[in-house]
Each structure stands twice: as structure tokens, then as C-alpha cells.
């Protein structure tokens, strides 16, 4: 095949599922219709893409859904078919959420579902993420994620949870999982589970949805904090990959390649958050990234102070691991190593990678090599594996 169908799938899947869910009012049927449409596309797009692949998929999926409903004998199926036949492809949107994908995120984040089911289902539907990618984000077995997604779809169907726009008063109660979804979609884009290191489509979509969320809920500090965090991280992306596709760590990046417009916008959002004086995890992470992008060198003492605050708000092993990097810069690698010795992050390659770097700085070459070997074994992305292999080679 001469066309990049995989690329179209990654870029358009979430958008198409969201649009079809609005048209059909049924998440499960929408996902099946979109998958059917992509199966048709495999045969139809052998030589060239249509002018608007997303619109082609939506139209084909809608027609496939109508065909399926025609074969159904239930009254509900006939009613749904009649609605589809008489509505335009772009019916008028109502309610406080105007973006299809953002609306689907809020819908999937229904309080009747467990937090993990909410975010896992949304990442699958909106981000088009596969089960291994979602499992990596949560550091849990793939079977756990598969079961949660299946159960979530079944609960939505059996409980008759409607696809509808939440009322404005309901939005704050669903905000936490929505923020988590956008954060995880961006993270998967910034460091993908497989293939190239960065998936720019996911990064761009997460930023777009974060902007839409900030317009919808401008008085929520954590919403502004998340947007600032994504912008300040995205600003550094052009310098994160070298000429040959190799990973370039923050300390070695060419800062002239950073996007100064995004940095300025992110800094302004951080200042707005500071004026509100209602700190939360996303705001504190944004503040840390603001320090990293302020001037020609990082003020590590300030970064460590912010991580101390973040650890109080989010006392997780990953926050503690990230804090150790700042501890090493301020107090030295020995103290940093002591702070991570008892961390338990099974399957997370950055824990042994961080330990390896600290051990190497302490001159404990054999221990560092063993830690690098563990990190290389756990790392899924080939670019990250190549980086770790290069660092291990320098030990000799």
C-alpha cells in the first residue's frame, strides 16, 4: 500500500469516534462503525488518500451504521436509523461543551464508572491508544486495562448511560479524570510506547483539547496549570530529538530551538495560577517547567523547592523519582540515590535509568552497568533504548 493508513488512523480515529458518537448516541456502535470504515479504507485507498480522510471515514461509518440498523428488528434500531437518515452530517451542537472530542471525554468520565475505567476507555476512544500504551501509562498489566475497558463499555450499555453533554454544574465533578486523560494523551505523544520517540499528532491534539478546556473553564486553576504544563513541554520538543533521531536530554538541548512563543504563553499562564494562590499538581509541574525554560540555565534550588511542594500534593513514586534528579543537582548524587532506594515502580524503566546515572556519577561503574542493563531491558521505545545503550557504553 502506498498510502500511510496507519498515520491516518492515529490522526483521525478519535475525531471520527467522537463525531459518530454524537450522530449515533451510542459509543459502542460508533466505535464499531469507525473500525468498519477503516477496514473499507484498506481496500479503497490503495493508491491515494481522499481529499479529506476524516470526512470520508465519518461518512462511510455513518452509512455502515445505517446498514447495520436496517438489519436490526428492534424498535430502537429503527428509531435510530430514522434519526440518522434525517439528520445532517453536522447537526447543531448544544450545551456548554462545543468540541466533539472534549464532550466525549466528559461523557466517558461519568461518575458511575471507576476512575481507571473512565480514563482507560477515554484514552482508547479519543486518543486511539492501544491497550499496551494505556497499560504503560498506568504501570499495570495489559489484561487489567483490557478488562476495565470491556467492563466500562458493558456498564454504559447495560445502565443506559446516555451520550449527552454534561450540564455546566456537573463539569467540575468530572474535571479530575478529564485532566488525567489529556495529560496521558500528551505523555504518550511526547514519549511513545513504540516507533518514533515523538507522536506529534497526539501532542498537538492534547494541546488543542487543553486550550478548549481552558476556554470552557477559565476559572479552574488546574485547567490553566495543565495547559501551561503542556505548552512549556511542547515548546522544548524541537530540541528533544537530534539530527539522526537520537534522544537529546534537557541539559544537552540547543535552547535556541525552543519555541519562544509557547514559552511566553506558558509563563503567563503560570503567573495567572500564582496570583490565584490555589496550588495543585498540574500548576506545580507547570511552575517547574517554567523554571527550566527561564534563562540559559536551570535554577535547580528553585526546582527542588517546587518538587517538595508537589510531593505534598501528589506523594507518588514517580514524583519522588523526578525530585531525585533535582536533589542530585543541589545536594549531590549520593543523597539523591538514598531518596530512591525504596521506590517501587515495577516495569518503569526510568527508575533503574536514574539509578544508573547516579551510580555512574559516584564512580560505581559495575553497579551502574547493571542498572543500565535493567533499564534497557524494560524500555519499550527503541530511541530510548538506544540512548541508554549509549550511556552504558560510556561507562567503559
UniProtKB/TrEMBL annotation:
GO molecular function, one term: DNA binding
Record's keyword terms, sorted: Sigma factor, Transcription, Transcription regulation
Gene3D superfamilies: 1.10.1740.10, Tetratricopeptide repeat domain (1.25.40.10), Winged helix-like DNA-binding domain superfamily/Winged helix DNA-binding domain (1.10.10.10)
InterPro entries for this protein: DUF6596, RNA_pol_sigma-70_dom, RNA_pol_sigma70_r2, RNA_pol_sigma70_r4_t2, RNA_pol_sigma_r2, RNA_pol_sigma_r3/r4-like, TPR-like_helical_dom_sf, WH-like_DNA-bd_sf
Annotated ranges, domain RNA polymerase sigma-70 region: 9-73
Domain of life: Bacteria
Domain RNA polymerase sigma factor 70 region 4 type span(s) in chain numbering: 105-156
Domain DUF6596: residue ranges: 174-273
GO BP annotations listed: DNA-templated transcription initiation
Family: Belongs to the sigma-70 factor family. ECF subfamily.
Name of the protein in its database record: RNA polymerase subunit sigma-24
Organism: Amycolatopsis albispora
